[in-house]
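Appendix B: a complete holo record

For completeness, this appendix reproduces one full record from the ligand-bound portion of the collection. The bound molecule is pyridoxal-5'-phosphate. The inputs are the chain sequence and the ligand SMILES; the output is the full three-dimensional arrangement of the complex, encoded as structure tokens. No fields have been trimmed.
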Amino acid sequence: MRIETKCVQSGYKPENGQPRVLPIVQSTTFKYDSAGDMGALFDLSADGFFYTRLANPTVDAVEKKIADLEGGVLAVMTASGQAASTYSILNICKAGDHVVCSAAIYGGTFNLFNKTLRDLGIDFTFVSPEITAEELDAAFKPNTKCVFGETISNPSLDVLDIELFANAAHAHGVPLIVDNTFATPANCRPFEFGADIVAHSTTKYMDGHACALGGVVVDSGNFDWEASGKFPMLTTPDESYHGVTYTKAFGRAAYAVKMRAHIMRDIGAMQSPQNAFLLNIGLETLCLRMERHCANGMAVAQYLESRMKDGKITWVNYPGLPSYKNADLVSKYLPHGSCGVISFGVAGGREGAVRFMEGLKLAAIVTHVADARTCVLHPASTTHRQLSDRELIECGVTPDLIRFSVGIENAADIIEDIESALAQI
Ligand SMILES: *Cc1c(COP(=O)(O)O)cnc(C)c1O
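The structure of the chain with pyridoxal-5'-phosphate bound, as generated:
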């Protein structure tokens, strides 16, 4: 099936007489006739559900759909994108380990890594997304366990050279984890370029309607966990789980099964069946919506660029504009479009940015991005306000940066809204 069809058809397969639409299985527990039946589930030797923290039929169906959309073997859905990023690292890193990470990442992920996970003893080296292969190679240490980056970074809109980062990771025997939130599998499937694990905040385009927080981690099944000897947590018996050796028992799905059996069991940031149901409805229209987001994004970006002539707009950054700094990466990784998010600077710096935002009527000031309704945010005074100026610049965020998330309304209405707000500055 092609991706548009998978969005609609994958995951839930009703049998004769069952509901056509994915049901919400609002139950924490599942009944069995014998202790033996349930024991087999605990041993991971039988398929089935016993406790919703570990697996639930509604969540399971949506996990199958997302795994299919990304071209992976197994997915684990989480309560939020933050939980997905946390799990993707904790599944293979512990105190004393090290991660190479692109500096162009979401501010929340940066804090999670640079503060919370660092406090737990995991070390991070942040590298420029525009790093050369030689410089990237030099960032690895003997204790490096993975590499992390974002396909299109939020909010700086850097496009990750997935192949470059994957090759470097593989040369050091470790996987590349890619946060694919902004591109979505409709526009880029990082596994096709060598990434090994994909993470998402499904809160954004995948849900698409700003209804439900959620995250997901997808395992490509392609990484050889045994080759380097660096992943004993996957290749030797897990005494906390009946001595199972994940690579032996689950082969290509070792990473994802371990995430569920170990990290989800212990930390428990599962996605609720209700949210999975809402996410699934969003996923049905993902490809349709992404087409419109990209078409509107391009129209608005071109309009903004046209306003650089009268000085109201100082710069425009949109992957897809001919002026985009890495047009070659866009044509390689995002040939069908990037996303609906544009960043730009308004005349008057930090103050001008705030005044412009307050002049908008259709575009709402919200702490959200990437949903059906056009919205706008000033990261330096909101999402990224806890970062120092130096950290801001490292994340690719300047004080005058406006993050404009173009929705699926008529582009002419969005442009008229911008026009009247610009008239006020
Ligand atoms: C929003 C976002 C996250 C965090 O996701 P939540 O669902 O808000 O926890 C992670 N990565 C990226 C790229 C995001 O945009």
